[in-house]
Design goal:
- The chain is α+β, with helices and mostly antiparallel strands.
- It is 20% helix and 32% strand.
- The strands form 3 sheets. The protein has a 7-stranded mixed β-sheet. Strands 1, 2, 3, 4, 5 and 13 form a 6-stranded antiparallel β-sheet that branches.
- The longest helix has 12 residues.
- The chain is globular and about 60 Å long.
């Protein structure tokens, strides 16, 4: 089952469930988070809660998308309680791109591995532990709170000081923390883990700065297990024409870590197990337009799609103006 959140023509919130090729209104429901809490309290699945509430009329989700009425597949009334985080160097093939970004010109003759390659090798050797064992921890980063979560179709805002505004097509796990501090995974969604790769390339220690950017999510939330082999496409459109396009792979068949191992190393910290909090945790990528020399411009549109996730995730790029401090006059 896939779920979407939207506003109807009158501005009221709705949730719709994909049934075959159509979306039907989930009755008596205003948010996916509401469904999640109901499922946790009843110790059952989101699908069962949706079935119990019942499905209503068919909704035109593509029209809602075109009209800017789709919302992120998870949100809350208090965005400070949404954590946006992620992992890197988790996908087979991802190390080559990252290593090229971090390698200095005078490193060409060095025989030692870069830190990126060392981290990637650790994942290859210990990212998929045997049952009952704990695997190696991955690279981890923080992106911000829910104020930086961008819905499908909405602009991705790049600050004026940014050196780059680049996409990262990823899969994100969506989690809700129960009243006893237990993390509950409610599903998966497409994500654009928008980053500043030029800043990151200056020095790997600038990774934190490069990640403090908005990200986008959706449109559809997959309720249930993540397919082991995900094949999708990432593209950039400029004035309606595709200027770059490349396939991307995800799912555990194409990763050096298991989803369970990535989840363990995120939620092992008590600060990420606070009752009522929501987590959007992105699992990494191996495909970047930046690695192919693409320089994005204001107005470019990022488009990420994969058949399992239904509708594509589209977001235009908007570069913000510099912040100016004004003097208050009495």
């Amino acid at each position: 089952m896939n779920l979407v959140q939207l506003l109807n023509a009158n501005g009221k919130r709705q949730v719709a469930a994909r049934v075959d090729d159509a979306f039907r209104h989930v009755k008596r429901t205003r948010s996916v988070l509401e469904l999640a809490h109901a499922a946790i309290e009843a110790k059952t699945s989101l699908s069962r809660i949706v079935e119990e509430r019942g499905l209503g009329k068919v909704l035109d989700i593509e029209a809602a998308y075109a009209e800017g009425r789709l919302l992120s597949p998870i949100d809350t009334h208090d965005p400070a309680h949404i954590h946006l985080t992620g992992t890197g160097l988790t996908h087979l093939g991802s190390a080559a791109t990252r290593d090229a970004m971090h390698r200095k010109i005078d490193d060409a003759k060095e025989e030692t591995l870069t830190d990126s390659m060392k981290m990637f090798r650790m994942g290859l050797e210990g990212g998929k532990p045997r049952k009952g064992q704990t695997g190696v921890q991955p690279e981890w980063f923080y992106k911000g709170n829910g104020t930086m979560l961008t819905g499908p179709g909405q602009p991705l805002l790049s600050p004026a000081f940014a050196e780059d505004a680049g996409e990262e097509p990823e899969i994100a796990g969506i989690y809700v923390i129960g009243s006893d501090g237990t993390p509950f995974r409610i599903g998966f969604a497409l994500a654009n883990e928008f980053s500043d790769h030029v800043t990151e390339r200056v020095n790997y220690l600038f990774l934190a700065h490069s990640k403090l950017r908005p990200c986008s999510l959706g449109p559809e939330l997959i309720v249930g297990d993540l397919p082991a082999d995900i094949r999708g496409s990432s593209r950039i459109l400029r004035k309606g024409k595709t200027i770059w396009e490349k396939p991307f792979l995800s799912g555990e068949d194409n990763m050096s870590h298991t989803i369970a191992n990535l989840e363990h190393h995120h939620f092992k910290y008590p600060v990420f197990r606070q009752p009522g909090d929501v987590h959007v945790h992105m699992f990494g990528t191996a495909t970047l337009s930046f690695a192919d020399g693409i320089k994005t411009e204001n107005g470019d549109v990022f488009e990420i799609e994969a058949p399992a996730f239904g509708l594509p995730l589209r977001n235009p790029l908007k570069i913000q103006k510099p912040v100016k401090v004004k003097v208050a006059t009495l």
